[in-house]
Each structure stands twice: as structure tokens, then as C-alpha cells.
Write the C-alpha cells for this entry.
Amino acid sequence: MTELIERLPLRAGRRASAGAGPRSSVVLAVVLTGQLMAVLDTNIVNVAIPSMHADLHASGALLQLIVAGYTIAYAVLLITGARLGDILGHRRVFRAGVLLFTLASLGCGLAPTAGVLVGLRFAQGVGAAVMIPQVLSLLQRTYQAPGPRARAMSLYATVISGGAVLGQVVGGLLISADVFGLTWRSVFLVNVPIGVAVLLCTGMLPGARDMTGRRLDLPGLLVLTPAVLAFVLPLVLGQPLGWPVWG
């Protein structure tokens, strides 16, 4: 009994240090980089609007959709993305989201017309909706001890709050630098090397758990998707397009 009591603090210390090793630090860096990439894209495009208007000769409505299409797709599909992570595995769905987001970013950077750019911005939003819900789930699984988990959650909150401001700054720097004469295209193409780097590191993320019996709630999805769309669309586009206040 004495020997057992002496071992208890050691075991408790080992449990408390769980989630504080080098591998957990890699997981934190990978998922927060993906999170930051998606958060930046919410605001980075705003700075490039004048350049897009001059280059693509886009109408005001198309410019609004270029900015808002990402947010609309993200808001509508966010809950579905979280559910897919529970069903298919968080690492697998995170990887799929990063891949889609990266390919859509490449397409945005090469888009020949404003209409094509709008469609690819929606695709970016879908990628973000698939990727972002997995970040919190992977952090919760990796950091199980209270201390390391609190620190990870603090960094997670910092990325979300700071990313919105950083997007404006990074967008301004990229447009001003005009690297290789890319003008507005650089705000999208910058995601490509970052996305590739995140994809190469996703093998370090925790693997799938047993999710037997979980399935996608299709009736709920059919109700939730138009409901969220009806709520978000007027908030995003209503004022710029002159919709009535009741909308």
C-alpha cells in the first residue's frame, strides 16, 4: 500500500504532462497554421478590391460576391463540416479541407474573370468550413491535461482574434509590394505554399477514432442549410445592395 501511494504523484505528474511533448507542439503548429490561413482570407481580399475592379472590370455586385462568397459558404456549411469530422475522422477531413482550400486559392489567383473568381471564392469557403471545425477537435484530443490545454486554447483564440487584423496588414503589404506584377492575385497565391506545407505535415495529426454508428443528419442538413443561408445572405449583401431593412 505504501509503495502504491508513493507512485501516485509520479503517475499524476505523467498524466499532467500529457499533451506537452514535441509531437503535440507540431500538431498545434499545423492546425493553427491552417486556422490562420482561413481566418486571413476573410479580410485579406478587402484590400485588393480596387485592384480587382481595375483588372477584371467587375461590377459592384460581383465585387461584393467576391468578398462575401467565402463567408456565406463558410457559414452555411460549418456545422456540416464539424459533423463530417466526427464521422470520417478529424485528420482525414482536416486534410481534405486544406487540400480544397489550397486548390481553390490557386484557382482564385489564376482566375481569368470575375465570375470564375466568385465561384472559386465559394469553393474556398467550403474548404474552410470543412477544415476549421477539425482544429478545435484535434486540439482537444491532443491536449488532455488542463495546463497544456489552456495554453493551446489561448493560442487558438489569439489566432482567431488577431487573424482578422493581420489579414488587412498582409493584404496591404502584398498589394504594395506587387511581387512579380501579380497585384491582387498575390493575396490568393500566398496561400498555396502555406497550404502545401500544412498538407505535408498532416501525417503528424492524431488518427481516426472509432466513430461507429455516427452518420450525417441529412434531414437536418436540408433544413439547416437554407435557414443559415437565409439568415447570413441579407446580413452580408443586404446593405451594399440596398435591400430593405426588414430583410
